[in-house]
Structures are given as C-alpha cells and as structure tokens.
Amino acid sequence: MAPKRKNIESHLNEVAKPKRTKFTLDQTKFPRNTIKGVILVTGAGDVGQLGLGPDVLEKSRPALVNLTSEITDICAGGMHTACLTKDGKVLTFGCNDEGALGRITDGQEDAEFIPGEVALPGKVVQISTGDSHTVALLDDGRVFAWGTFRDSHGNMGMTVNGNEPLPYEIIKNQHIVKIASGADHIVFLTIQGEVWTCGCAEQGQLGRTSVRGSSRNARNGIDKGNIAKLVKPAPINVKLSLKLHFDNIWAGIYCTFVKVADGNDIYVFGLNNFNQIGLDIQAPEFFPKKSLEFSKYTWQVISSGQHHTIGLTNAGKVFTLGRKEYGRLGLGKDCEDAKVLTEVKGLSDKKVTNIACGSCTSFAVTEEGQLFGWGMGSNGQLGLGEEEDCFEPTLIQSKQLKDRKVIRVSSGGQHTVILCESDSNNKNGLTNGK
C-alpha cells in the first residue's frame, strides 16, 4: 500500500529543514560601564523628564540633577528618563500617564518630577527606554518592562491586558544579553545569538510580520489576536538556510539593526523613507535584509532618530545618512539628504567614543570627554543656550560641564541627558543652573 501523502510531506519537511548549529555568545562582548558619575539634563521638562522638580519646566543649558546615588547609565525616553545606579537600581522621572516610570505616582504630589526608584527583583545591568515604556535587563538574563506600546490607532498596551504600570517579566525562558528600544518596540538578543522583538510593527521594525499582519484595522473592533502576536516577544524572520547567528543589536525610533556574529554584515528592517537604514528603495522593509551600506564598516554604536541615522565605527569615526532637515545630519546648512553613509567632517579630527540620536538631534562624545551636538534646538535640547537649529557639530559648553568629563549621552523627544564622570557625588555638586 502506498504511504499516505501527509506522511510523505512530513518526511520531506523534516529532511529539508536545516538545523541551527549550536552557538553561545561570549557575554564579555557586552562590557557594562563601571565609571560612576553625575547626570546633567537640558531641554523640555514640562512633564518632569528633567528631574529638576516641578518649578523647572525647561533648560537651555545642561543642569545638574540632584541625586543621592552615583549613576553608570542613562536613557532618555520620549517624555521620561531612566538612570542606572552603580548598585544596579533603576531611577525614573517624567511622564507616567501610561506607566513608563514603573512606579505608582498617583496621589503623590510632584512624584513624577522627582527621581524615584523602581522595585525590581535583582541587579540591573542595562536599561532602555521608548516613547512610553522602559526596559531593564537583570544580571541573570531576565528582562522586565513597564509602560505601553502605541501604534497609529493609539494605545496597544504592553500585553493584551493593557498597560503595565509596574515591572513585568516580558520574555521568559530566554537568557538575554542585550536589550534595545525603539519608540514603540523592544529588541532582545539571546545568549544563543537569536534576536527577538515585540511591540508596534507598522513600519516593519519587528522584522517578523508582513505588511498585512503588521497593523490592526481600526480603533473599533481591534483585533486582539493580532495585537497578542505583536506584543508577545518572538524571533525575527530569518531564513534558516542562512544559519545566521547575531552578536549585537541596535534599535532606532522606527527601525532595527542586527549584526551577524563573527563578521561585519548588518541586517536591517523598519522605516526607510529617507534611506536611513541603508537600503536603496525608500520604503519600509518588513523582514531582515542585508544592508550593503552598513556592512561596509565595523560599528561600535548605531543610533537612529525619526528619519536619520548616525553610526560610530570601531575606529572612532562618525557617519550619518537620512533626512537633512533641522541640521540633524551635521553635514552643513547646504547639504542634501544623505542616501549613503557620509562621514561627519566636523568630527574627523577627533576620536569619538559615544553617540546618540534624538528624534531630530545628534550627539557625539569625544575621547577627551567633550560633547558635541547638532540638529533641532527648538526646545533647548542641544544645550547650547539658544533655541536654534545647529547644522554642524558644535561643542556644548556650560558652567556645569566645566571640569567634568562626559561619558555618555542620550536624547529623547525634546530633552537630553548627559552622564559625566565626577569626583564628587551629585548631592555634593553644584546647584541647578547654567
């Protein structure tokens, strides 16, 4: 008797399916910053994202945040800020309307304007923030998140049950070694070299859904089943036949970059309407695709704003591409949109150690600890003392930066956070001001 067709198909599928080779990432590849410092803030503070109290609603130059803990990492979200202390604790301040602070502030006067600790079940080694969410990676590989995701129809929730105002273990049964946040999506790198994503998929930033499966139809009759698939972490869609493993990840506001292990190849997915993810066609890419442009270099950091991207090579050089408006490319007032990676000449004589993008801003930290900024300055987020756009890298100077070496920078929607090495703790530092 001839075998049944379904058995033949099952056998063929088993034969055709390639097996993933065993792979484990070396966690030493992700060194954690051990330099303790103080934080400075600049820009809009109308919802408490500067952490300077209810009476300070904006700053045009960096101001010192009065903390009792020494800080090792910083993240500026859309309208909130998260800081990581030397003891592995997370402090947050800013807008908490959708739970982005991870702590209850209702009924507590000015609680959103003052840094407060998030209760977490272990030592945190990395943090990331989006428009309305915050994520914490613990030293044992667990990941907790809080807040919400949003899409073009409004609030998606962080789970099908809605917002998560307190830390929630968002991915289980996976040992995570690095996290990254876009505006409304999260990227996870597992110790096995796999990349998982969750959140909004409308611009292709999850790298695992088709155009049709990336959104919900309308505010009325929301497809909860589809939302459940999006907010639940799952692996990106990479052909098994390629047998790829990844050893680094970066998230832009609407896009994602992943690096192939033991090589320079960069795969990208997400919004590309100004070539900001290094693909020729100006259209969203919904599945991982190799970017020949980004694969030309070896990268320390890739940071992407709303419509532009800047990258820092291992050699300390800064490249940019994407939309030119507001000077965010740093290529001069008369430049055109950059369709290929272009070196920022204003920094070519310096060795850069850290970079960051805000929505329409760019920043670079040099080996000497100087901070340069360029792009939109309408809310003082460049820290230059004026609310003017800046078209080339400009040294940021202020009383608070004097004698302080900048280590890292992070820029959100309309505010910027700066981590500086300092001999004195924040509580012993200078008072807020220019």
TrEMBL record:
The keyword Repeat applies. This is Regulator of chromosome condensation. One of its GO terms (molecular function) is guanyl-nucleotide exchange factor activity. SUPFAM superfamilies: RCC1/BLIP-II. One of its GO terms (cellular component) is cytoplasm. It comes from Sitophilus oryzae. The lineage of its organism: Eukaryota, Metazoa, Ecdysozoa, Arthropoda, Hexapoda. Keywords: Guanine-nucleotide releasing factor, Repeat. Residues 39-418 form the RCC1-like domain. PROSITE patterns: RCC1_1 (PS00625), RCC1_2 (PS00626), RCC1_3 (PS50012). RCC repeats lie at residues 37-87, 88-140, 141-192, 264-315, 316-368, 369-422. Pfam families: WD40_RLD (PF25390). Gene3D superfamilies: Regulator of chromosome condensation 1/beta-lactamase-inhibitor protein II (2.130.10.30).
